[in-house]
Structures are given as structure tokens and as C-alpha cells.
């Protein structure tokens, strides 16, 4: 709730937080929140016993097997919604009833229509909505923005962004049953555009201002019911930049590498996010680790997930949200931002679908 | 049953294709049509005489993209189905087995098998031991001087079976092969290698067609090759290409299976005698040096293993947890001890 003081429900100085869904990303949020000064994780909810057990091992005092009960029983200031997309709207509605601000994992919703309903509900209840678009918090993206703002390459006529990852089917060896919802268009709202592209749209508008989607194509490398690859042509009128975006959930991900490339081709040179990443991941991680250990001896706060820049970005995103809630301010990346990225992804999906339909239409032969 | 110690080998002409993978199924089918016919050769004629049902058993254990070499290319299966549909009125089927991670129906759908089967009217069946689709029968075979009992789908015992494995390592570092592909259908308490050998004896596949069009060693490689012959023999060839040699337990257990399959007694020790017989383009195209291509394949596969687990290397995980304890940092969920504190 956009109140100026925290603890309106809890009577505590700490921000009382609940985490709804502690799968992979929910667990990152939980660990982030646990390490955050001024934040107290009161409870988590997850349908899977193994996830609840993991949260208990991480020190969570109370776990629930469904988020509805958690929101009814716990006195919270804010909740992290890290559930599959088809549950976001319901979770926001229930948080609204409880008067709890929410930090929603991306995509905010499965469609702009659903997002509008969620945001109306939130507005009527007076709760704040933040969205977890983490790319803006990654040091490499911050480095690119800083160089761009400084005009180090002059005018930028062209930019490109690529974000690749493995999809739910992963890579060998097979060790887990893949979840079915990411490949279900009704449950996920779409494929790669909503899973990965949505991050790219957000970071591109953050860099270049309002974007126009000019063209798009989507593809599936297997016979799956959602796209696992998408290419989008964009235009940024304010900076007069043409942009290509490619996202794909088809590549075998090799941790700790994260396959995101952003290049701004300017008049006097190129700005690349690769120039703002450690040359050697392990050497960079070791340096961060050493810095954190030294901070402990000097009583300074360590960087949470210090050696892993992409997890650190999740920490920073949640921390910025919590700070805004604490100060009674609008979250730095709010529901409208989440909706806007969704709108761009939706437009791209519609353009691609029109093209696919046109390709399938029989050619009319006239004599 | 093919009773010889010869593995027929042929090459797929990929000279007019760009890149190592042709995404269009029809283009792959077209390129595979002749080589599949050449590799199967006389087997195709003999199985086509079978009056009832012919079942193809590909490596479809998980919906990995076929360009990774981690599963049989469905186009190879499609080419086999086409060849058979031209020669026989027998009912055709493609069989797979659900695993603890993935129902076969879903795997088959993602790999495009329903459309492929529809083209030749073949049926798609899940014959996993737990699927309840059809009866199983129990058989006992001597393997390595002990009795190994396996329950296999009765249907695979009744049908003429062509097993079509991919050329890749297993999680445990063995060659996936035809025997292990068939072992996936068996219910047994014995170790996997002995189960695979016993299942192969129970099912008695008519032939094994090894899909080496795209193989996986430490990375995919477009080898554009096909090998066909008795299943234990083809597996032994596959193992020798990985240079895992006869450390592979199933191959070690297979010489007598090889003898059963081929009627040829291994000369000495545990090594089955294999003769690779180039056919089709591998034998007739003057621009092709088949021996050199086989050497290249061996070099690309030598010592090949699957990627390490999604989890970070154990040493890194331990170092990170130690750092987190000393530095007061959080441990990323990916680096946590599973099931422990």
C-alpha cells in the first residue's frame, strides 16, 4: 500500500514480507529478502512440499501450501508473487483484499487485458505493484546506459539485443520432469516473447524511450505449442534508432554464462554489454567474494549474491521495490512498466501471427 | 533376423545443404530415402515379408532437438516407415516408452511423430512397463553366467522390431545404443547393462539402424552416416567409435548375444568381430573417402560425454558455500545442497 510508513499492519519497523511461490526464482527472492536489511520474511507459500522444505531450511518461520491461506493469516506489508503467470491475477486480487503491496515476477500478466484488470484491482485497493524486470539492474546494462548517456559513441542509428536461454525442456542429462505450464499458452500467455523478450523490451525502453514495433516473426524449433524463438524489428523515434531484438528459449544454457548480448552501434564506435562484464567469470566472482569477505571484517554490508551479477540484479530489483514501499513511493519499475513491456510483446506476437496466417493462406489463382 | 557379423554403412548426401542441419522435415526425408534403403538392404526385404506388424523403436527418451544428436532424428524413422510402406501391407507402428521425467505422448508430440506417423498410417504406442498399454511377459536369460529375468511388452516379442538408436553417450558414459534403447522397455531388477542385454534377447530385433546423421560426443556433429546390422554388433561399433571400447558393460556382456544374433562366434576374448561394409554412396561415390569419414567420426566422438549436470561443478558449489559462510553472503539456490541443510 502506498503509505508513507511501513508496519501499518505489522507494527514492526521491518517490512514484513511473504513470498508466494518458492521455485527457482522465488527462492532467489526469498534469499535476497532474507539478506536485506529492514526486511523480515514472515512466511512463504508453495504447493510443492520439497520447495516448502527448502524454504524452511533457509530459515523461513512459517510455510503454507497455498498462497490464499498465507495472505489471509499473515500480517504482511508486501508479497513477492513468484507463481506461474496464470496465478498472478488471482494472487494480486487476494493481496488487494489483504491490502498488501506486491512485487510480481515477470511477465506481469498473460495479456494486457489481464494486466489492466490486475492494475484496476490494485488501484481500487490502493496497493502498489512492482514488477521484476531485472536487466535494468545488471551492471553490464547499467554500464551500457552510462556510456550511451555520456554520448561516447555519438548518435546510435542501430542497436541489437539477443537473449538466449534454455527453455523448460533444458539440456542433458535429464534430471527433472519439466514443468508443463511454460509450454501451455493458456497458462503462460505465450512463449519466448513473454519469458525472455519481455526483459529486452523493458531494458530497451529504459535506454531509448518509447518504442514502436515495426515487424516480428516467431518460430518453434520443436513441435511445441508456444514460440521458442522470436525476432522483432523496433524503432525508437526519440533517439532515431532502429533496433533488432532476438529472444530464444532453445539454447542449452551453460551456467554461469548468461547469453545476453546488447550492442549499440554509434557514429564513433560500439557500446557493448560484454565490455561491462568480467572477462573471466570465475576470476570476477573470486574478486567479488574476496571483497565481500573483507567487508565482513570492516563491518560493511556485503553485496548479496556478490559473485553472481545476474542474481545480484534480482536482489537489487527487490531491494529497490522494498525501499520504495518503505518510503511510500511508487515502485521504480511498476505495474504500468510491466504492462508496457507486455504490450510490446503482445504487438510483436500479433504481427508474427498475422504473417504466419498469411503464409498459410492458400494463394488465389486467377486466370 | 540378420545373421552376420557385418554392419552395413552408408552416407547421406548433404552436399547441397547449408549448415549441419536441415530444418525442413520433407527435405530430410527426401535426403534419407535412398540411404535408409541402402543401409537396411536385405533386412528391408525380409521384414517386409512379415505378415503382421512391424514396430520401429527409435531413441525418443526426451524431446531434445534432433539437431543435438541426443535423440533419433524422426526423419530417419519417417524414411524407414516410407520404405516399409512401399514394400508391405503389414501394420506399422512407432513405439516409445514414458520415463519418470516425461510421458512418451508428450515427447512424441514435441518431436513431431504424430504427423510423421499419419503419413504412412503408422500407429504410435507407449510401451513403458508402467504405461499399462499391453501385456508384458517375463523371460529369463543367462547373462554373464547368471540368470537375468526381464519383463518386456508382449507386443515387442510378437512384432518384427527395428530398433533405431541415436549415436550418443548415456548419462553414465556408455553408448546409448540399440540394446539400451530396448532396455528402456524392460522391467527388471538386474543392473541396466544386463537388463539391456536380456531385453534385446527377449525382443530379438530384426535389425538395428544406428542414426549417425547427427551424433553427440562432447558436442553435436553432423556425421551424415547410417549403420545397420545385428543390434549387439552395431552397439559394439558405436562403443568403439567413442573409444569406450569394452569398458561398456552391455557390450562386455554381449559377445554371446552377438553370437546368438549373428551365428558367428567371437574369435577371442570379449571383442565381437565386426566388419563394416560400405554400401550406397559410401561405396560408389568416387568423391567419398569412407574410411577417412569413419576416422573423422571416431576422432569427433572419442571420449565424448554428455554435458555436466545443470548444477555447477561440485568444487565451485563447495567453494561458494564456504565463501558464503565466511563472507556472510547468500547461497544461490542452484548451489544449495539438495535435500540437506
UniProtKB/TrEMBL annotation, chain A:
- Give residue ranges for domain GFO/IDH/MocA-like oxidoreductase: 147-271
Gfo/Idh/MocA-like oxidoreductase N-terminal domain spans which residues?
Answer: 17-133
Q: Name one GO molecular function term.
A: oxidoreductase activity
Q: Oxidoreductase: present as a keyword of the record? A: yes
Question: Membrane spanning segments where?
Answer: none
This protein's source sits in the domain of life called Archaea
Q: What is this protein called?
A: Oxidoreductase domain-containing protein
Q: From which source organism is this entry?
A: Natrialba hulunbeirensis JCM 10989
Automatic annotation (TrEMBL), chain B:
InterPro entries for this protein: DUF362
Tell me the ranges covered by the DUF362 domain, including all copies: 55-189
Q: Which domain of life is it from?
A: Archaea
Identify this protein by name.
DUF362 domain-containing protein
Taxonomic source organism: Natrialba hulunbeirensis JCM 10989
